[in-house]
Write a structure and sequence with these properties.
Structural class: alpha+beta
Strand content: 25-35%
Number of strands: 10
Number of helices: 5
Oligomer: single chain
Helix content: 10-25%
């Protein structure tokens, strides 16, 4: 695994994952390099709507059609920091590009555009992120805590949140319902 970047991949928690922040999650890996890794959980809705985020950052959302869009728990680090995963990547103030069409933006301008119905075609809003120190993610993968595969836009934007964990695992041919919750090595 050394030298192989998992940037723009899904991390899929194995059934034995007991950490309550990550059990049964799918993570979009945004960065992965020699300094460590950073990702966003994409399948854990929280009890907030986009209207709440608009209100928090002072955006008038009276005419926004997507005010009731669900917001997701992105991870346990900086849970007051928002991330908008979107397609197309566009040209926002602070966007990290993942491949040709996918972007992750942390600047207010993308939220303003969404409220004004001129934002990206598809998006998902998360609060917080997950981070790994150098080598930590590689160790967790070696310990069978995570599966990984290239990110899939249909799972990210079209699959209902409660089905994303199983759907992502099926991309690598794994039916999580048939796996034991016990970790181990053969």
């Amino acid at each position: 695994m050394k030298g192989e970047s998992l940037h723009n991949h899904f991390l899929i928690a194995m059934p034995a994952m007991t950490d309550p922040n990550f059990a049964r999650t799918v993570m979009l890996l945004c960065e992965h390099n020699e300094q460590g890794a950073m990702g966003l959980v994409i399948n854990r809705p929280i009890d907030l709507q986009l209207l709440d985020v608009f209100s928090e950052v002072g955006i008038d959302a009276d005419h926004a059609h997507d005010r009731e869009t669900t917001v997701y728990f992105g991870g346990p680090v900086q849970t007051n920091r928002g991330f908008v995963v979107h397609e197309p990547a566009g040209h926002w103030d602070s966007t990290l590009r993942l491949g040709e069409s996918l972007g992750i933006t942390t600047s207010r301008d993308v939220l303003q555009a969404i409220a004004e119905q001129r934002g990206p075609d598809r998006y998902l809003v998360t609060l917080g992120y997950a981070g790994w120190s150098p080598g930590q993610l590689e160790r967790e993968i070696a310990e069978n805590s995570w599966l990984h595969c290239p990110a899939d836009r249909a799972i990210l934007f079209e699959t209902p949140a409660e089905q994303r964990w199983q759907a992502a695992a099926l991309l690598v041919g794994v039916d999580l319902a048939t796996l034991s919750g016990q970790a181990g090595h053969a």
